[in-house]
Every structure is written in structure tokens, then in C-alpha cells.
Amino acid sequence: MSWAVNPNRSTLAIFVVGLPMVLMSWAGYAAEPVKLGLVLPYSAVYASLGNDITNGLELALSEVNYQVAGRPIVVLKQDSQVSPKVGLQITKKFIQQDKVDFLVGPVASHVANAMRKAAHDSKTFMIIANAGSVVLTRELCSPYIFRTSFSNWQPNYPMGIWMAREEGIKRVAILAPNYAAGRQMMEAFKEGFLANGGEILSEQYPALGESDFQPYLTNIAQGNPEAVFVFFSGADAVKFVRQYAQAGLKDQIPLYGSGFLVEGKVLSAQGQAAVGIKTALHWADTMDNPVSKKFVRDYKAKFGEIPSLFSLQGYDTGHMIIQALEATGGDTSDKMRLRRALEDVRFESPRGPFKLSRSHNPIQNIYIREVVNAGYGVIENQIIAVAAEALEDPGTGCDL
Ligand code: BEZ
Fold this sequence. Notes:
Blueprint: H1 7-31, E1 34-40, H2 47-63, E2 67-68, E3 71-79, H3 84-96, E4 102-104, H4 109-122, E5 125-128, E6 145-147, H5 153-165, E7 171-175, H6 180-194, E8 199-204, H7 214-223, E9 227-230, H8 234-246, E10 255-258, H9 265-270, E11 278-281, H10 290-303, H11 309-327, H12 335-343, E12 347-349, E13 352-354, E14 364-375, E15 378-391
Parallel strand pairs: 1-3, 1-4, 4-5, 5-6, 7-8, 7-9, 9-10, 10-11
Antiparallel strand pairs: 2-3, 11-14, 12-13, 14-15
Helix pairs in contact: 2-11, 3-4, 5-6, 11-12
The structure holds benzoic acid.
């Protein structure tokens, strides 16, 4: 048997010659940064949400010094405004030019819907840190799309049940901005409310970014409902709650909503006009558990303000990416391995134990919160009930 064909020796020869090359390429690969491309609004109606998500994400990354499994983490940011067209342009640039490993965002459901095909077709992981569009974790679910926030169904469906059963309210007027999230949230609310004996007296859908709610408030008052249920967020939420109080409706018709209505900086800007509003959501900054308290403390120390739900979602997005990368040893090239690592992520979030459903959407409790005057000039959301425990959006999985 000649040396050349001896299988043991040739294996050894390849190993000895190949080792430095393998080590060199591993060293090069290991030092290569993991790139996150943030597609978030830094202007227009949802600007404060985009900033809060970014801060929460940066807090989580700073906990590991922007380094996972020997690879530095680099954050690229672009302003998606609230435009599906701009969101898609940025997404394509991040995928094709910057070759990001993860897209993070967006905030608005219609922007998320517009980004979906580009992320899915290019097999780029997209971690949705807010947008609740139900189709993305149902019929348009993708192996590459994950959510750390909520589906638009999750807070609103149990709120419909809770208002009818626990508050005894049967006749309501509903109102939301006229785009995917507004429509989906109202559908979810109706599903729970109508099945429990409720009646919808009026449905109104002003434009996203509306500045004058007076005509809508006049319509509401004329219908004489027992309560009003709304979804608004960001600058829209500030304007709506203030105008509701200015129109004299605050003390006449109780106002309810999904929790985005009175969250973070929005609540500070609304002030007394928000007191008494009851909303449903998966967290409140007053939540009494050690992980939440630590998060609020660390965020305040770094940014000088109390975090919002959006900050929390950015924070959990950071933890999800870090844990998945730790599980793959920093390898982002094997998409199936990274997908499974993302699906298997588990950690203690400030909202409670974090775990995804088969449709890549968090399974979580939904709380009823009430805005109260807590004394010393502090206005805050206090949790007054649990509307649903470990609620899972009814998606059936992401294997297309
Ligand atoms: C959305 O468009 O999905 C959305 C925007 C703001 C708050 C909550 C949801």
C-alpha cells in the first residue's frame, strides 16, 4: 500500500495542512460583527416608540458589552417613519448592501406587512419588536420572522370579555386609526365583547396621524354609549386623550383602550387627562417582580427616564438575539440552526417567563391597568386585574 493511498495517513496530511487554514478562517469569521439593522420610526406619529425600542435594545446589548460568542454586535439604524414604502426601501438596503444578520422592527403593522416578503425571500431573520399585525404570525407566518411584542389580537380580545363580564358594560362606541393595526385591534375587541352580550353602537376610523378628533367625539356623545373603547398610540394617543377630556367626555363616558393609549412618554404628556382610563396590556412599569424592578432601575440609570412597554420590547429583543447567538456559538450562517435557537429561547423577562408559540409570538399574561394619581405628582398605570393568563395568539405554526 503506498503512502498516498493510505487513508489514515492522507487524513492526517490533510488535517495537518488544513489546520492553520481552518483556524485562520475561524478567527476571521469569529471577529466579523453580527449586524442588526433597525427599521424603526424616529420621526412622525410613532417616533417615541422607535426611540424607546432602540434604548431598550441598547441596554440589553450593553449588558454583554456588545459582544456575543467572540463576535462584536453592530447596530445600524434607519428611520422608517410610518411609511410602508420607506420601510421596504430600508429593509432592502439592509439586506442587499449591509448584509445584516437580523432586521429589528418595525413599529407599525402596515410597515411590517410591507417588509415581510423581502425578509422571507432572502432568509433574513426579522425580529418584530412591536408591530402586532396578526397575519405575520398566522397565514403569512415565516420561519425567519419572530416577534418579541404581541399580536394585535392579544390585548384586545380578553379586554372585550373583561369589559362585558367584569365591568358589566354592554353598549360601547369604538374608535381606532384607519390602518391594519387599528382594524385588527377593533376586530379582536369585538370578538370578545360581542360573544359576551356586548353591542357596538358606532365604529369610527380616523386617519393615522389625525389632529382633530372633535367630529368623532361629537358622534360618540350623540350615541350615548356606556363606554368608549379605543386604540391609539404615540402622538395620536396624546391628542386623543387630551381632546376627550377637553370635550368634557372624561367624566361622562368612561374611556377604555389597549394599553398603548397611556404608555410611557405618552402618559406623561397626557397628565391628569389620562387618570381613570383602564387599558389592557402585557406589562406595566409598576409591575412587582425583581426582574421588572431591575429593568426599570437600570433603564432609568442609563437614560434618565422610566421605560415604556416599547423599551421593554427592545430589551427582550436584545436578550432573544444574544441567547440565540450564544446557543449557536456565534454562527449565523446555518439558518436552520439559528432558527431553532431562536425558537428555543427562554428567559425571565420583566413581563414574566418569555417563551414563543409555534407561530413565533410570545405566550403571555394580559393585565388590566388603571391610570391613577399615585401621589407626589406621579401618574402611573397600576395593575388591577389579570384578564388572561399565558394567552397564545391562535396561529398554527410557521412551517410553510
Ligand atoms: C401597530 O401598528 O401594530 C402598532 C403601533 C403602535 C402600537 C401598537 C401597535
